[in-house]
């Protein structure tokens, strides 16, 4: 018996990385899953590797019409929707303000906020009637950058802080029908891309030695993979195990917030010396 037996989820950006792992984990927990994915090759590859428990909708999470089409396809295929997961995102590859060319800054802002914030809001709007009907939930992928500086440049960090605000406001508005929560992962090797305005549309985070990096930045000293985060989504989607959770964000970024311990111990040791 799985934690999500009989449940139906709709997820944006399930073609690679974290979203792809969430699809597999939700299936293992007994759910059926719909995926809104913009990349045709990833959408085709996903559809080829799953069965009738998954429906893949090719489309753009920044479009209200595509989000509505995804919800309609979910209902047509599975007859209900229990959880909407806003997940597709863009990173700014830690580009600091001074390195953002003034002439491209407005377009870079629009592209990052357009997916990371507006995309989640449009998905929430499209999914809301079906979620009210099922008394379901929403889950949004945040980031360590939703809490701390340094996980991105100002565009990404501000966009993920905005997602935390979105979660709290929607949780406030949608009680008692729909629970709204977030998961804030830290770095993991994925195909995360950047905005076209900064020429980063074909640059993949996963091309860097991310796995080794996670072991160094996390005070837990572990290599972190996208699948390590999926249990948080299962828990928050579960009606029986998370019925009291709304407006919360599972901060599971590997301990970024307590990573100052080693530096603090070194400083204290130097004072004692
Ligand atoms: N990789 C990390 O280190 C990291 C850390 C913290 C948070 N996150 C967050 O995790 C989430 C998932 O990213 P990931 O790291 O798995 O990257 P990813 O690029 O591997 O996955 C994102 C998926 O979204 C799809 N996508 C992109 N734009 C889209 C659009 N407009 N409409 C529909 N689909 C679209 C991509 O094709 C891809 O399949 C993002 O919100 C990201 O900010 C990632």
TrEMBL record:
Membrane-spanning parts: none
Pfam family, one: adh_short
Keyword Oxidoreductase on entry: yes
One Gene Ontology MF term: 2,3-dihydroxy-2,3-dihydro-phenylpropionate dehydrogenase activity
Protein name: 3-(Cis-5,6-dihydroxycyclohexa-1, 3-dien-1-yl)propanoate dehydrogenase
PROSITE patterns the UniProt entry points to: ADH_SHORT (PS00061)
EC identifiers of the protein: 1.3.1.87
Domain of life: Bacteria
EC class name: oxidoreductase
Keywords: Oxidoreductase
Entry's family note: Belongs to the short-chain dehydrogenases/reductases (SDR) family.
InterPro entries: NAD(P)-bd_dom_sf, Sc_DH/Rdtase_CS, SDR_fam
